[in-house]
Protein 1
Amino acid sequence: MFELPLVIISKRTRTSNKLKYQYINNLNKKYDGINGISNGQTELPTPENSATETSENEEVVQQKRRKIKKRWKSVVGENYSDLESDDEQPVEEVDNEERKFYRKYEKPQLTFEKWQCDPKRRTPIQRHRINYSKMNRMQRYGYKRMETPLAVSSRSNKTFFHAVTQGYQLYDPTYGRVNTFQLKHIGILTSLLHINVLKRKWELAYKCFALLIRIPGVDVRTLWGLGERILAERQPRRSLEFLQWMSSVYSTKVPLADDVNYRMAPVFTKGSKTHTPKYTTTWLWECLIRYANGLEDLEVDSRDIEENFQSLMDRISEMVLGPPYMDDPEVWFIYALCHMVKADALSQQFDPHLTGSSRDIASNQVIQHIQNTKSHLQRCSSKGGFTYPKRYITRQLATFEARLHPTIDSYDTAEDDDDNNEDSLPDDENEMYPENLDTQLVDSEASLSD
Amino acid sequence: MDDGLLPQHFPAGAQLAVGVRGSSMYVPNQEEAGKSGGWVRHFEDRAPFDLNELKTGKDATILDDPSNFTVDEDNDIVVGKDSTDGSQTLSVESSVDDELSNDENDENEQWKETIIKDLRWERLSPSIPSNFSVFQDVDLHKDPMFDIRYGSPISPQDYVPGTLINDITRNDYLGAVRKSKRETEKLLIFDPVVNDLFVTGNIQTAKDLRNNNDQQVVVAFCSGETNSILKLAVLPENKLHLTNRAQWLQEFFAKNVDDELGTFSSIDLKSSIKSIKIANVSSLLGRDSDTVGVLTENALYFVKIDNIDPQTSHISYSMHEPLKSTSFGDFPIADFAFNPWELQQFAVIDIKGNWGVARLPKIVKPGSRIRFIPNMKGSIFDPEELSNWKRIEWSSSYSKLLIINASKMVELDLEHDWQLEVVQAKTWSYLRDYRRIDDEFGVLLTSKEIIILSTKSENEQVSRVISWKHCLDSTDHTLRLSIQKLPLGFKMLILTCIFSKGHDKVYVHGFCHDQDRHLVQSVDGPLVFCIPHVFNGISSMHFLPYNGEEKWTVSETQGQKLWLDFLFKDTSTNRLMHCYLTNDEVSHVQDQSFAIPELMDSVSSPLPFTGRNNDQVKFFIAQVKLSLFEDEGESNDPDSEIFQKFGYQLSEAINGIVESCENQPVHIKQLQPLLSDLTTVPTKYESVEELESLLCQLSEYYRDLGVVFTDFRIISRLLVGEESVNLDFFVNKLLQCWDIVTSNSLLMTRKVFDTVLWSILKFHKSEKYDTIETELQESLTDPYSEIISHWDEDESQILEHQVSDERLMHETNRPQFLFGSQSQIPTIKSSQSRSTRRSRQPHSIQTESSFNMPFTPTEQDISSSRISASQGGLLPDTMAPAFSLMSSPTPMLSQSQNSQRPRRKKKRIRGFG
C-alpha cells in the first residue's frame, strides 16, 4: 500500500518499459512526420512563440554548457562525491528508449511535476483534432516497428504491451517486482512504520524506523520526514540533530544532470547546486521556531536558548555565502525572520528608563536588526519565486521601531531619577544581552554579503 | 494582503509531508492587544477537531447487490422467447446442462479431447487466449443488456459445461490451467475510463424552484450484472440524521427490487455505465441542478429530473436524446463535465484528448438534439500518452476549462483563445485524479501528492496552494480521490480521501481554509482507515452531502460529535455499501487490523504477526525472560566439560541410530533426525568456537561411515542472506539485529542462536535413500512405474551420449536464454524446452540418480539439464530448419545489445576531442 523506500528495478519492468517507450517514441516520430514537425518546431514563428523558444534555447545551451563542464571536471579528476556516483549507477543500466523519452523533458527539482504559471507561455488553442485514420496510421507504424522486439519478448510482457497500447492501465502495482523476502520484509516494515506514525504510536514507529534504515538498499532520504516526526515526539532535541545530520551528510553542490535518468525524484530527497534540499530548510525552520518560542518564554533559562539562536544565525550567515543557499529565497527569508524575531524580543525588553550610551546601544541593536531584516528580505525578493506578506512585515517592523520612541517622552520627565542608576545599568545590560557583540558581527556579515 | 498570508515558493506553493511542516510566518507580540507572539504555519496543529479521532462505523451495510439480483420466472421465459443471436447460445447451453447425461456425452468427449490437447500443448494451434478460464456454473439472470447486439462486451470467459470439468481429471488440466491462471492474475488490467459508478448530489427541479423548496439529496447508481441499469432515488434528508439511519438505509434500499413502490426509478441504458455525474452548480447561482449525466460505453445520456413527488419521493424524469460518441468524433468519450455557471452547457473529452463543448436543448422533446458549439472544440492529443484516462472540468470562470490527461494538465480560455500547459508530469509523477471543490479550489491527486489548486478568478492561472505528500505506492494506477467539505466554525475543512482498487484502506488527509479563503492550511496528520466488508478494493466512494452547516458554531466545534456518512462500491462484488466516519463513541469499537490483502501479491499478507506467529514470538520472548531469572546464581561448568559430555552422548545416540537403521526399515520422515532430538543439548556454554569445532569433528568422523551432517553454512545463507564462514560470524549477525530491539540483546541472541542451530542440524545416511527408493518404486502402480523405468532408460542413453560429447554437456549446463554467443539456439525452441523442463521437474526427483546423491542445487541442475538435453537429442531434425529460419532476427538483437555499450563510449571520447 505504501511506497517502498528504495529503488526497485527488475528485469521484467525494465523490458516492459523498454517496449512501451519504444512504441511511444515510434508513435511520436510518426506523429511528427504526419504533421510535418521537425525538431520540435510546431508552428510558424509568432512573437509569442519565439519568445518561448528563445528561453528554451537558452536552457538547452545552458544544459550543454553544464554537460561540457561536467566532462571537463571528470577529465581533470575533480569528480563528484561518492553519493552522486551512487545515484548514477543505476542510470547506466537504463535502456536507451526510456532515456530517449526522458531526455526530452526537463526534470524539475522543486516539484514532482513541471508547473507553468507564466502567461507568456500561452499559446492559441490547438484546434485540429486527431481522427481515427491518423491515429490508425500512427499505431500501425508503431506496431510494425515493434514486431521484432515483441516476437522475442515474454508472454506477460506481450500482454502488458497490448493492454497498455490500447489505453488500459495496469491494475497491479507489484507487477514485475521481484518477489524476494527482503523486499517483503521492507514492505512490511514500511507499512508498519506508516501506520504507527498515523496512529501516533511513536515507540513502535521508532523501532520500525530504526530497523528499516539499517537494511541495505533502503535510502534514509526517502524516510527522513517520518523520522523527524517520530524523533520530534520522542526526543525533540534529537530531531533537530537528525535534521542537522541529514543536511550535513546529504548536502551537495553538484548540479542535477539533466540527461541522467534518475529513479528517485529529487523533490524531497536530494539537493543539488540549484536546489536546497527539503531537510535543510525544514531543519532551519524547526530550529528557528523552536528557539524563537524559547526566546518568548522569559521564565525559562534564556541563556541556553540565546546561544542556540545566535549559533543558528551564525550558521545561516555562513550558509548564504555559497550555493545552493545563496540563491535560495527561502533561506534568505529565514535569515530575515531571525532578525525580525530578534528585533521583536529586543524591542520588547527595551527599557525606556535607560539613558546615555547604554540606551543608544540598546536602541541601536533593535534598529540594526530591523535594518538587517529589511535588507535580507530585499535579497529574498530579488531572487524571485517566493512570496511573503510584505506589507504585514513592514508594518510589524514599524511597530518595533515605535516601541523605542514613545519612551522619549517618558524619558524626558524621568531623566533625573534615572541618572542615579546610570552607572550600574550598563553592566546589567551587557550581562543580560550578550548580543551587543552580535550587532558588530551582524554588521560585518551584512557588509560581507552585500 | 495581496501577497498571501504565508510565505511560500511561488509556483510550488507549500509542500508538506509527514515531518515536513513547510514555511511559517512570525506573528510578533502585541502588548497593546495583550496577545503573545507566535507562528502561523502551513501546518495547523490546533485543528478544530482531531482528525485522528475519526473512526469508521462498526459495520458496513449492503445497500445494493447486483449479484443477488432476484429474477422472476417470467423473465427467464422472455429471454428464451425473443432470443436474438446473442442470447440464443446461452439458452441452448442452459438446456445442455439439463440433458447432459443422455445424448451429449459424445459431444463432451470431443470437447474434452480438444481441451486436453490444447492444455497440454499450450502454444500450439489453436491458440487459447491468455485469459482462458472456465466456469462451472451458468446462472442465467435476466439482464437487458444481452437484448441488444451492438456494443455489448463479450464475456472474457469461455463456457464449458460443468460436468465436463468434473470429468477432466486433476492431472489433465489443473496443472496447466492453474499456471496460466496465475499468469493472467498477475496482469490484471482495468479500464481507466470507468469513473464513479454512483453519485450522490443535490437536485432541485424546476418545480422546486418555483415553489421555493429546498434541494433534495439524490443518489444515482448503476446496477444490474453488467452495470447497465441506472437507478435513481431520493434520500430524504430528515431520515439521514437519525441514529439508526444505517438500518433505515438498508431497509430503504431493500425496497429497490420492486420498482412498483416508486421510490426507485430505474432506467435501462442497454450498455454498461462508465461514469455518473450530477452537476455541481456554482454557489453564485443559488440553486442546484436537475440533470444527471451518465456515460456508457457508446453514448452519453442526460436524465432531466422533472419532478419529485413530495409524498412518495417518486421521481419522474425525461431523457434527452443520447449523445452518441460517433456524433462527437472517432473515439469513445472518456469524460464529461457540467458547466457550473450554466446548467445547459457541458464539455466532453474523448479517449485521445479531443474535447468539445455542447449545449443541451432547453426542452426535452424527440428530435431536439444536443448540439456542439462550433467554435469550442479542440484537442490536447499527445502521441506519447497511451492511457485512456482523461478528465475535463471547469476552471475558475465561465470560459475556462481544465483538461487533464495522465501526464499533463492544460488550462484553456475559450473567450480569449489561449491554452497553457500548466502541469507537465512526464518525469517523477503522474496525474491520477482531479476533483473540483468549488469555484475557487480544486484537488489534484498525483502519484506522489495531494495538491490543493487555486482556481480563483483573480489569479491568472491555476496555481498550487498547498500539497501533501501521501507516500502511497506511486505505481498504483487505481488511486482515486473523493472529497468532502465540512464547515467548522469560521473554517472550512476539506477532507480528501484516497482509495484504491487494490486494497480496502482509505487514506484521509485534511486541509482547511479560512473565511476569506486566503489562508489554506493542512490539518494535523493523515488518517488511514479500513473499510469493512471489502474484499479487493474500492471502485468508487462518495460522501453524502453534509448539510449540517447551521449546527456548527464556534463554541461548539470542540466537543461536536461528527457523523460523516459515505457510500462506496466494492470492486469485486460491485455492491453498493454504506458506512460512516465518526468521532463519537462507537458502541462496538473494533481494533482495525491493517492487514493489506494485496491480492496482487503471491506471497502471503504482509501483516507480520498473525495468530500463531504472534503467539510463538510472545512465547519465545517470555521464555527468554524466564531464563533470564533462572540463570542467575547458577554456577556453570567449564565449557570443555560440557562439550565432552555432550559429544559423548551425541555420538552414542548417533551410533545407536545408525545401527538400528541398518537392520530395520525406516519411515521416510525419520530419515533425517534432528540432533537436538537425540540428547539434551547444552545451553550454558560460553564459547561458540568450541561448539563449532565439536560439530566439525563429529561430521568428519561420521563422513567415513557414510553419515552426512547438515552444512550450517548453506542454511545460514538462506537465513541472513550471506554465507557465514563460522558460527561466530552468524552470532554476531544476529546480535546486530537484536541490539536494535532490546537491551539484553546478548542473552536474546544466544537464545535465538541456540534455537536456530538445534532446529536445523540434522544428519542422514545417504545409503538409506537407495533402499527407500526401490521400495517406493515397487509400491507404484503399473503405469507410473513404467514411466519411471522408461525415464531411467532414456537418461542412461543420454548419459552415454553426453560423456562422448562434452561440448554439448557444457552447453546445456548454462541457462538457455539467448545471451551472448549462444544465440543460435532458436528462441521459440528454447523457451519450449524450458517449459517442458519445468513441468517435468517434480518427476525427476523420483529418478534414481537424484536419490543417490545428496540434494544439492548443482546436482539438480545437471539432472534437469540432462532431461532438456534429452529433448534436444530427440528432436535433432526439427531443430536444424528452425535454426536457419529464426536465426536472422536473433543475432540482430544480440548484436544491438552487445554493441551498444562500446559504441556509446566511443562517442563520448569523440566528444572530448
Protein 2
Amino acid sequence: MEIAVCVKRVPLVGSTFMLTDDAMAIDTSRIGATLSPHEENAVEAAVRLIEVHGGSITLFSVGSAQAEEQLREQLAIGADRAVLIETEGTEIDSQATAAVLAQAIDQDATDFDLVLLGTESADSGGYQTGIRIAHALGRPVVTNVKGLDITDNKATCERAVGAIREVYEVQLPAVISVLDGLNIPRYPSVPGRIKARKKPVDRLSITIPEPTTIRTSLRVPQSADKGAINLGSGQQGAKALVEVFKQIGVM
Amino acid sequence: MILVYADHDRGVIEPLTFQALTFARDIDPDVHAVLIGGSSAGLNASTAAAELGEYGAQVVHIAGLSDYSDYAPLAAARALVTLLGSTGAQALIAASSPRGNEVLAHVAAITDRPFVADCYSIAIGAPHKIVRARWAGNLHEEVDVDAEAADVLIATVFPHITEATTAPAAGAITEFTAAVSQDDLAVQVINRVGASTGGVTLPEAKVIVSGGRGMGGPDGFGILESIAAALGGTVGCTRVVTSAGWRPHSEQVGQTGTKVAPDLYLACGISGATQHLAGCKNSKTLVAINTDPDATIMNHADYIIVGDVNQVLPMVLQEIQDAKS
Amino acid sequence: MSVLPSKAKVVVIGAGIVGNSVVYHLAKLGWKDIVQVDKGPLPNPGGSTGHASNFIFPVDHSKEISELTLDSMRQYKEFGVFVESGGIEVARTPERMQELQRRLQSARAFGIDHSSLLTPEEIKAIVPYIDETIILGGFQTTSAGVVDSLRMGTLMREDAIEKGALTVSANTEVLDIVVEDDRIKSVVTDNGEIECDYVLIATGCWGPKLAAMAGTNIPLTPAVHQMKDIGPVPMFLDAKSDIEYPVVRDMDSNMYERQHGTGLEIGSYAHRPILYKVEDIPSNAEAALSPTEFPFTQEDFDLQDEHALELMPEIVGDESIGQKYAINGLLSLMPDGMPILGEAPNVKGLWSASGVWIKEGPGVGRAMAEDMVLGVSQIDWHGEEHSRFQDFQFSHEYIQARCAEGFNKMYGIVHPSEQWESLRGIRVSPLYEREKALGAFFFEAGGMERPQWFEANAPLVTKFGDAVMPRTAEWESRWWSPIINAEHLQLRETCAIADLTAFVVFDVTGPKALDVVQHSVVRQMDVAVGKTIYTPVLAPNGGFKADLTVMRLGKNHFRVVTGGAHGMADKKAFASNLPADGTAHISDLTSGLATIGLWGPNARKVLESITTDDVSNEGFPFASNRIIEIGNIRVLASRISYVGELGWELYLPVETAAALWDMIWEAGTVHGLIAAGSGATAGTGRLEKSYRAYGNELETSYNMVEAGMVFPKVKDQDFVGKQAYVAHRSEEPIAILCSLFIDDHTSSTGEKRYPLGWEPIVTRDGELLIDSKGRRSFANSAGSAPSLGKHLVMSYLPPEYAKVGQELAIEYMGDRLPCTVALVGSKPLFDPENERVRS
C-alpha cells in the first residue's frame, strides 16, 4: 500500500502568543516548532497500515526549509521519504496549500492508494485542505476520522459524534483526514532516528497560486483573567464550592 | 440573502445552527435555511422548518433526496451548489461543527471558491472583511477575502460567540431538487456503533468534572467519576491524560479533543495549557482546584480552591452528599 | 503574587535551588524580613532547576567546588531528598583511564570517600545494560546520587516561612534594581517596590539582565545542554523508584545515561556550543514547556545517539523504545567555568549567586548566607568571587568565546595548567613584542599575556643537563618545559629580567588612607614613607583572603601590588573598608603601570650600570622603595623578591616600559642576564623559598599559625580577622604547613612521575592524613625545586606528622610515591637565612 501523508510545521506555542511588530505573524524567535497535532496521528496510522499491508509512506509538506526538521522526525517514526515544497517563509492560504499538495501528490512517481492528513491544522484551522485535495485528485474523502481499518482495498472509517461513532466505508484510492484520538502516536526510537538521517527529503518547486484570502493582521484576544474568587482551602473550600454549585443550579 | 446550512442528525438539528442563524441575521436579516434529506433521513420537514423559522429563517429550503438515507457530505454539498445557483445568495453560512465545516468545504472545492472557517465577524463587501479564529480562538486573524473569487462567501461561525436568540420568521418550506449522483453518496454514514450507554456525553453535558496530570494516574479519576455522577455530569480530561493512556480519548477536552460549553466545568489538577483552555473556556462557570495558585488555569477560572486534589475532592464529594441528604 | 512589604532586609531574586537555599540559610542564621520573588510560578518557576537531571557526582578537581558539593549533598540528605544511586564514569580510552586515576586522586584529597576504579566486568555486573566490551574501566563513586531539587526548594522556603522570616511572591517580575551612591536602595517589581539593604541575584541564566538593572555585570551566557528521555524500557518496568541503577557518565563521549523511572535519560555536553542571549529566552507564558526548555534540535544530537547506542545497545537500540521527551535545556556558562558568587565589585549590597549547578546549590546558599551574615563562610569560595573579573572580561564577545570554548571541557580531560585558546593576545604588556621575539610561551594571568618561559633560553637546558629535572611522562610535560628550570638555575647564578605587568596595582589615598590599609591588612602599615611591606589579608575567621605587598609612598598614599589572577577581588577587599565620607579613595593603576622584575646575584651590577642613584645595600635596603632614575626614565623601585634573590620590582608608566627593558637588557649582557618566565619567577623560585601562594597554601580554611606565618607582634590597630588571629596565636595549630621532598619518582611502570599539586598525602601504607578538624592533607603545591635538586611538595600535615624526617607518601596516578618531610614551617629550604635576598 502506497500512502501519502500531508503534514505541516507549526509553532510550538505556550499559553500566550507573542506577535511580530507588524502583527502579521507569531513571533517565533524565542519558540520552537512542532508538527500539527492531528497529523502525528495520520503518520502513526500510515505506519500501522504498512506494518500490516506492506508498502511505503511518503510525506508531503508545504512550508519553510525548516520544515525538514519535522519531516525528519516523522521519517524516524517510519515514513520512507519526504517531499518538501518550499515556500519563502510566509504561510499560504488553504486553497493554495491544497492546490500545491494535490499537484505534488499527482505528479509524484508513486501512485498513492491513500492520502492521509489531519482534518484541520493547529494554526490556521481551515477544515478544507483534505477535501480540496480529494476534489483535485478526483477521489472520495472522509474527514474527522477517529477509527480506521483497511481490508480488501476498502477503508472503514469511524468518526465520533458524542458517545456514538458513525461508520463510513470508502473504496481506495481515497483521501482520509483524521483527528487526534485515532491512535496514540509512537515516539521515534533512536535507531529510527539514525535511519531517518539517510532517508531522502526531496525539494519540489511548484508555482503557488495567487491567494484569495489575505491576512491583514493578527490579534491576541483580551486575556480572560476573570479575577477568580478564592473559595479557600480544605473543608471550608469544599463547603463554599457546594454553595456555588447550588447558586449556579447544578445541584 | 444569506443561506444557512442547517446540519441535522436524523432529524435533530445541530444546536450550533441556531447560533449560526442568529449570526447570519446580523449580516442580513434575509436569512434562508437549508435542510438536506427527507423523511428517509429521519427528517420531519415541518417540525424542523418551524424550529429554524423560530430563529429567523424566512425560507427553509429542503432537498428531499430519496437516496439520502443518512448524512452524506458530498451529496449535501452538491445540493447546496444547486441551490446557490438558483437562489443568488450572497453568502453560505454554517455552524463550525464537524459537518458544517465539511459540507461547506466540499461546496467551496466544487465551486472553486474560498472557504473561511471559524468566523467571529463578517462584513460583506469588496473585499469581504472577516475576523476569524486561529489556534482554536487563541488568536484572531483579520482577513480580506477577494470578492471576485468569493462571489458567494462561504464561511462557518465560531461556536459560542453568539448566543442563539429567537426572531420568529415564516420558515416557509421550499422544496428543491438537486442533481446528486450515486458517486456523491459513496461516502455516507452506513452504520453507528457504540450506542449510547445512557451516560451524558461531553458535548451535551451540563457538568463536566475534568482531571489533568495533577490527578497522578488513572486511579485518581475514581473520585472525579463519583463527583460527576453526583452532579449528573460526566468526566473530562486533558491531552496529557489521554496520551498517558489514563483515560479514553473520547473524554479529552481541548483543541484536538472536544470543545465544550457546560454550565459547570470543574478543572482538577489541570495547569491550563492553551490546547486545553481552547476546549473549555466557553464554560459558563469554571472552577479550578490546584495546588499552585499561580497555575494558568487559575487566571481563567471563576472560582478557585488552592489545595491538593487528593485532599480536597473527597471533602467536596462528602459535602455534596451531605447537602443532598 | 503575595502582598509584598515595602521594606526588607534582603530581596532574593529567584526561586530555583540557589535562591531557595539562600533564604533558608539566611533565616537559619537569624535574619528576618527576607523577601523572595520569582517571575515564574512555584514550585517550578521555569529556570534551570526545573529541568535539571538532578544527579550529583561529587568529584571535581577543584577543592572549592568539591567542598560546596559535599556540603550540598549533606543538606539534600538532611531534607530527605537524596537517593544514593552511585555513579560510574566510564573510560573508552587509555588517556581517560589515566584521568580516572586522577579523579580518584582528587576524590581522596577532597574528602569524597567510597570511590574506586572498576574493571569493565565489574561495571557490567552493576549496570547490566552496558556494553562492557567498548570500555576500559570506570571510576565508581558509590556516594553519588540523585536529588529532588524542586522539593528541596519548597521545603527550604517553607522552613524560612515557618520561622516568620520570609515572604515569597511568585509571578512577580523585577523591573528595576535601584542603586544610590553605589549602594542598593530598592527593588522595583510589578508587584510593588521594596526598599532593602541587600539584593541577591539567584536567577541563573537571567543574571546578566538583572545585573544590568543595577549597573553591574554578571558575565555568563545562557547555553544549551541537550537531553532526552527514552522509554518505557522493558528492563525498567518494575522499577519502584526514580533511580535504582547507578548514573553512568560516558566521559569520552561527553555524555551521561541514567535510568529515570521506566525511562533512560541521555544527556550530552558533546554538541556544538549553542549559546543564547538573555533576550532570546521566552516568558513563562510564551514558552510551550518552561522558558528554559528550548525545543530539541535533533541534528545536534545525531552523533550522541550513536554513542549512546554503542554504550547501551540493548536499550538504545530497541526500536520499540521511543523518545518521550527531549529538550535543549538552558543552563549558565561562565567564561572561566566557575560560578559567580558574592558581592558585586561596584555595588554595595548587591550579591550574585549565579552559574551554580544543582550539585552545589545548597552549599552555595549556605556560603552566601554565612558570608552575608557573618562576614565569612566555612567553605572557601575565593575562586568564584564575583569581583574576580577584569573589565574587558565583560564584553559580549569575550563571554561568548570563552563559554563556547569551555563548554566541551565539561567532561574533558583538562590539565591543571591548560590555557585558553580563544581571544588570546588581546590584553598584552608593552613588552609583548620583545617577549615574542625571545620565543615566549605565554600563559594568561588575569586575562593578560605573561611569558611562562622563553624558547630563547633552550640552550640553558643543555648547559644545566639533568639539573633541569627533565620529565618523560606526557601529562607532566604538558604545559611545561625544562626551560623553566633552566631559567631558574640561571637566575640564581647570574640574573634575570621578568615582565610582571600582569600585576594588579592600586593606590589608596586621602586623609584616611592609613586607616583603610591598616584595617585591611595584618601587618603594621604606619611605617616610614619608603617602606615596602609584604602582608596577608585575613577574613574575619582568621583565614586568608589575600597576600600582597603594600608600599608607603607618602603620608596619605599607599600602593598595593598583588597578583593578576585574584587582584580584582583583593581590590574589593580594600574597597569594602573605605569610609562612607569620601576621606579615602582607591584608584586602579593596573592598566597604567608596567612592572619589571630584576633579580639575581648580578642584579645590582646591572642596575648600578644604568643609574646614578645609590642602589647599594645600605643606600637601598631590602623592603624599601623609592623613585630612581634609570637613564632618563623615572622609576619607582621596590626592593623585594618572590624568588628569594637580590633584586627590585620596577614600576613605571606603560609607555616607557619598553625603553627600560631595552636598557636593562643591554646592560645585562655582560652580567649574564636572561629573560625569565613566570614558571621560574612565580613557581619554582617561591617553592624553594617556602613562600606561600594565595589559592594554594593560603585560603580561608587555614590560619596564620597553621601556615607558619606568625609575625612577632600583633599591631595595636584593629584589622579584619584580628580577634581570630590573636586567638589562633594562643592555640596549638591543628595542622602545620610543611615542605616535603619526594624520595623516589619511579612509578609502577618504571617511568618517573612528577606530581603537579592537589594529590593526597598519605602514610607509606596509604592511610589518609586527616586533622582533628576533618581537613585532609594534600599537596597544596608541588613542583620542581631545581636548586635543591628535588621535587618539592607543600602540604598541611596534622602535628603528629609534622616532623622533619617523617616518612610519608603522595598518591599519584595510581602509585604511591614515597616522600619525607623536609621542613616544618616557613623557614626556607633554599638560603634559609635569606642572605641572598638581603645581600
